[in-house]
Amino acid sequence: MRFCCVNDSVPLTTAALLRTACAARSLEFVEIDARAFDYAEHRQLAGGDMLYRPAISIAAIRVEQFLFQERVASFYRPPESIYYQPSTSPLRFQRAGLPIPATVYCSTTQRGIIRGLVEQVGGFPIVVKVLGYSSGIGVMKVDSYPILFSVLDFALAQRHNPLLCAYIDHATHWRLIVLGDVVVAAYVNEPDADDFRTHAPNDERSYTTTVRPDLAGIAVQAVQVIQTEFAGVDLLEDQRGNVFLLEANFPCYFAHPQEVAGIDISGMMVEHLLRKAVGYAASL
């Protein structure tokens, strides 16, 4: 059995943790560079192999889809959803009954329409989010029309279609990591200095493997909606205890709980796929 990891500028820690988890289980770890892949047919995986793509690039997605075969263990639910990579639109979550902040897409620079969109999300301040980035890049807090108009002019000129979202003041930003139908790690992000965005904490006491049922329920359902068995879910909790779903990210960076608090996320990931792979191999 092989564990195949599709890489493309992924943090070194990600592959290192997965490689160590595989070595502890005597599994062959195969790392593939998506930018140097030759698409030779003999490179395709066999039933009973395991496949995970921590990279987010289009190149990595195409390699992953090429490698996949029937009975290859992956985090996709169902397996054929590996061939479909829709964005995690807030509309999908909303229609599944999950709570999201008031959110609209903006694809215009027409001032009158923009004013109406701002009213739809509850007025200033709002959050403008340019999709396709991580670590808070592309997420901007805007509190006036002059700033908003200039931001949208630039974003749309760059062929982005940003989201406009309600701003939730003094919110607690949760990150929950879901594997299967269980939250395996959770932590509260800390605010950056002079910024409304947040980052993962460096205190091991900030990490936990138990979480309130209301938070866990939203996170698990969000991962089911995007049809995967693994994801990092971002939630906001306001001062009145209302919880809002921001994103469910697959793939996601899982190293913080493991490096800081010793929660063996990579080991659990490999075990999850190994159980599936053993079942697939037995059916061959």
Question: What are the defining features of this structure?
Answer:
Dna Ligase, domain 1, 8 helices, 23% strand, single chain, 284 residues, four-stranded antiparallel β-sheet, D-amino Acid Aminotransferase, Chain A, domain 1, Rossmann fold, globular, alpha+beta
Strand/helix succession: EHEEHHEHEEHEEEEEEHEEHH
Describe the oligomeric state of these chains in a short phrase.
single chain
Helix content: 25-40%
Strand order of the largest sheet: 12-9-8-13-14
From the 3D coordinates, which CATH architecture of the largest domain would you assign?
Answer: 3-Layer(aba) Sandwich
Number of strands: 14
Under CATH at level 1, the class of the largest domain stands as Alpha Beta
Range of strand content: 15-25%
Alpha-carbon distance between the termini?
Answer: 13 Å
Helix/strand structural class = alpha+beta
What is the radius of gyration computed over CA atoms, rounded to a whole number of angstroms?
20 Å
Cα shape: globular
Overall pLDDT score: 94
Number of domains: 3
User: Describe the biggest sheet?
Assistant: 5 strands, antiparallel
Q: CATH fold name of the largest domain, please?
A: Rossmann fold
Number of helices: 8
What does this structure look like?
The chain has 284 residues and is α+β, with helices and mostly antiparallel strands. It folds into three domains: 97 residues, 3-Layer(aba) Sandwich (Rossmann fold); 65 residues, ATP-grasp fold, A domain (Dna Ligase, domain 1, 2-Layer Sandwich), CATH 3.30.1490; 92 residues, D-amino Acid Aminotransferase, Chain A, domain 1, CATH 3.30.470. The chain is 31% helix and 23% strand. It has a five-stranded antiparallel β-sheet, with helices on both faces. The chain has a four-stranded antiparallel β-sheet with strand order 4-7-5-6, covered by helices on one side. Strand 13 and strand 14 form a beta hairpin. It starts with a strand and ends with a helix. The mean pLDDT is 94.
